[in-house]
Amino acid sequence: MGRTLLLGVAALLALGIPVAFGSSSADPGITATSVHIGGTAPLSGSAQAFQSVAKGAEAYFKYLNARGGVNKRKINYEYLDDQYIPSETVRQTRVLVQEKKVFAIFNSLGTEHNEAIRPYLTQLQVPQVFAATGATTFGRDYKQYPWTIAYQPTYIAEGAMYGSYIRRTMPKAKIAILYQDDSYGADLIKGLQRGLGPKAGNIVARVGYAATDDNVQSQIVRLRGSKAQVLMLFSTPKFTIQAFQYVNGLGWKPRIFVNAVSSASNIMVISSSRGQNKRVEGAISIVFLKDQNDPKWARDPGVLLYRRIMKRYAPSGNVKDVYNVYGMSAAFTFADALRHAGKNPSRRSLMTATARLNERNNPFLLPGMSIKTTSTDHYPIDQARLQRWSKGKWVSFGGLLKARS
Amino acid sequence: MSRLAAARVAVTAIALAAATVAVFLAPRWDKVGDIKGAQMGVYFIALLGLNIVTGYTGQISLGHGAFMAVGGYTTAILVADHGVRDLWTIPIAGLVAGIAGFLVGVPALRLSGLYLALVTFGLAVAMPDILSWDKLERVTHGGKEVQLFGKPALTGKGFADVSILGQTVTFTRAVHYLTWAVALVLLVVAWLLLRGPPGRAFRAVRDSEVAATSSGVNIAAYKTFAFAISAAYAGIAGSLLVIAVAFADPQAFPAKLSLTLLVGVVVAGLGSLWGVLAGAAFIEFLPDAAVHVSKAQGVPDTVYGAALILIVLVLPTGVAGGLRRALTPLTTRLYTRS
Predict the structure, then answer these.
(1) Pick from B226, B221, B289, B282: which is nearest to B55 by CA?
(2) Would you say residue A1 has pLDDT above 50?
(3) Could you tell me which residues come within 8 angstroms of residue B19 by beta carbon, excluding any fewer than 6 positions away?
(4) Strands, E, within A82-131: which ranges?
(5) Which of A88, A275, A355, A371 shows a CA-CA span of 20 to 30 A to B83?
(6) Are the Cβ atoms of A120 and B195 closer than 8 angstroms?
(7) pTM across the whole model
């Protein structure tokens, strides 16, 4: 047996010691004909519904590459599965940066996940562009993290939009808040108070829950005791669905606002028990993408383009999934930034370009929206419209709102 | 031919097969890279440990991910908050996890079979919540991430290069070497342990508790010993995992991790040390392979499940069992037991 051990050890050593390979150059991942970028997405596990954020972007890049790419460079977007676990995000991002030698990290999804990789990417000076998260820190803390920029409206901006709408239309209404007890819930409340301004005193009750809680029944009972006429649901889909059920069960009839994290139309359909729960009718949320399921956009060039791209480059994808549109929009903006990063983009010039965006032609965003950033404004999307749930679908109303984060 | 000579032939054949596999894999190792290589080493160590308790002693544990968490958090806290050099935290993590394993083992091992599996699984399910518990916030950061990246106690703080025996290598590669060096030491320890009297006692407990008792084996003591040792292995694996990623949070040790480890041991072949290599490779690379098949929603998870069913159907005794079976005709031809 002694020899087995010895030979096995030899085999192990042979396995364990890799062949050396050469070191990297200054700005890897970019050649005269290609740009290699990477990111993470939950391709397996419980959060895999979010994966279309990566797939929509991939489909758009394929479409773009078929048309010559950006400045004759084809964009090769490689996304790896992180199972929505931050430590996996770190590991896969390091595989992308150190071993796959990507030029930039693009469109990685999740607040904690992007926070987990930010110190690493900052130190290695690798761009972390258009991170798919609404946490305010990604737009606010650019001085500490100059290699990072997010994409979507922040939770503070979103809360402020609800706040100013309530201040204008229901200045006397008493407000109750259900919120997730973390930075996401706190940011939404902060925004709401900012939007309410002098009316912030109308918030009569707020009850939090922990993300690990089972349900929010007791929270809803306590909120109902406040007799508020407006209920803010600053909660993730699971708890939002529960909240609608409990509110209905208690016979409480407040005006309900649903934050964008939980307002995808498929979740709204579940919340309304396929139309049976009348409390869902009239609920209000924000929207910044063209909802391809909305008949209003059926003949819109952006939505028609979206359908063409899906059919040609992502035939196995779910055309009704709104996250695909999100991914395409982010990919469009990335191509835009790359175009403005110069003939021979470097990681630094890409970051400079992301802080000088002035994009008015993104076909996937609502008409009239623009993506504008400056050296002191690192919030690409800071506009949205309000929408109301009516007879099984969202109907947008009012003009474009702009909110500072 | 004498029995000894026949055994030698069999051993040489197995070793040759292993060497062939190694030679075949070596050129591809470059593509796999240091990060995945280190992770495979982490799984290798955890599986070695789990195999001692599940494969050799016959006690099913669905909670070894929790012991990885204990070891991992020991390292994370010591490196990030107390400035202990990462290398020294590895044995400490093993010790802490071993003690945790002993403490869990004393009451839990009165149970056996499915009941033990359930209790240990409960531990795996509870561990992320325990780590997020408010009352432990000062120790465990209350579920918030622990960044080791940039900490001075982490060798190669910002993943700077490291000098080993006069050679400069990247931190990532250093961790890869370190993991496999530790794995090698632990393999030898496991081998020595299992070929001696404790190993015989473990197997006796597994095969028949009644027979073991009547032969004078203290069942409770050996079960607890096996459990503590294997928890220590898991703790060391968790420690190396945290050093490699330079990051820890409760989500890094989900209940699913414990299930994954059990899958690894089954694929390896219960009660085989060599199969562990295959088991570790399986659980590290199958998810990648599944995503490679198709990224369509739901497909990676399905492929993973299908591959597992296939393995169990084709190799019911794991890779090691399959190898043994393939070699059986050869050895029976060379000598017959009479």
Answers:
(1) B226
(2) no
(3) A7, A10, A11, A14
(4) 104-106, 128-131
(5) A88
(6) no
(7) 0.83
Per the CB < 8 A criterion, the answer to whether A256 and A279 are in contact is yes
* Domain edges within chain B: 3-334
Q: Could you tell me the domains of chain A?
A: 33-153+296-373 (3.40.50.2300), 155-287 (3.40.50.2300)
Tell me how many residue pairs between chain A and chain B have CB atoms under 8 A apart: 158
Calculate ∠ Cα A188-A84-B77, nearest 5°. 90
Looking at residue B106, its pLDDT comes to: 86
- Taking CB atoms and an 8 Å limit, are A19 and B27 in contact across chains? yes
List pLDDT tens digits, range A307-363: 999 999 999 888 888 889 999 999 999 999 999 999 999 999 999 999 999 999 999
Residues paired with residue A78 on neighbouring β-strands, in sequence order? A38
Q: Does A120 sit within 8 Å of B149, measured CB to CB? A: yes
Q: Name the DSSP letter for residue A45.
A: S
Q: What is the DSSP string of A9-36?
A: HHHHHHHHSPPP-PPP-SSTTB-SSEEE
Residue to substitute from A13, A23, A50, A90, interface B, most B β-carbons within 10 A: A90
CB-CB neighbors (< 8 A) of A317 in chain B: 296
Confidence (pLDDT) at A26: 64
The full length of chain B comes to 338
Q: Does B247 touch chain A (CB under 8 A)?
A: yes
* Residue corresponding to tokens 């993104």: A362
ipTM: 0.82
